[in-house]
Amino acid sequence: MSLEKVRIGIIGGGTGGEELLKIFLSMDSIKVNCIADIDVDAPAILLAKEEGVKTTTEIMDVIKAREIDLIIEVTGSKEVLAIIEENKRSEVNVITGNASFLLFNIIQEYKRSQQELLETVTNHLVEVHDNIGENSRDVNKSVMEIEKVTSDLNMLAINASIEAAHAGESGKGFSVVAGAVKDLANKSSNLVQNIEEVNQNIINLNEKITDAVADLRTQNLDLSE
Asked: Which intervals of the chain form a coiled coil (predicted)?
């Protein structure tokens, strides 16, 4: 069973109101129903319009609204606070003054800690990505060396088979050697194929890590805005 959303009205469209609005818009448990400021170009007002949140230049639209449970006053004006206290419905709660400032600082600290966490995770992923890339290149070099050995083994098996055929009955020893070398070459070839498949899976994983790092960096930029 889902909890009902807390319906909020914000009075004050400055930087503080804008930062609060950004956080509230990202929270499923909160719905910002209206924001008021006499300045139609105030940062929070412009953001609210972009996000489809109702805006007004009349604080009474927020104070008297029946679809609001909590009013957050971020203007810092005693006159505005007095108007709110005098006209709000009894069941409506108000966060004002120092409490609003504290809430703003908590949000700023939250954003900073999230940025640090994302940066730490991103750096670790980049380090893992670089190590995987380096190891993958080493594996490729080893595979090439094994392939050369396999090729040499195949040539040796062919030469042994030819010698066995020339030697006739006395060449049975060559024939046994040729068979053993050929079997070893086949096993070596299968090993190379398995290594290449595993290495390709590692390369694919590294590409996913690259995408994840890009996403994390984007999220970090969003938090810093």
From this structure: 181-215
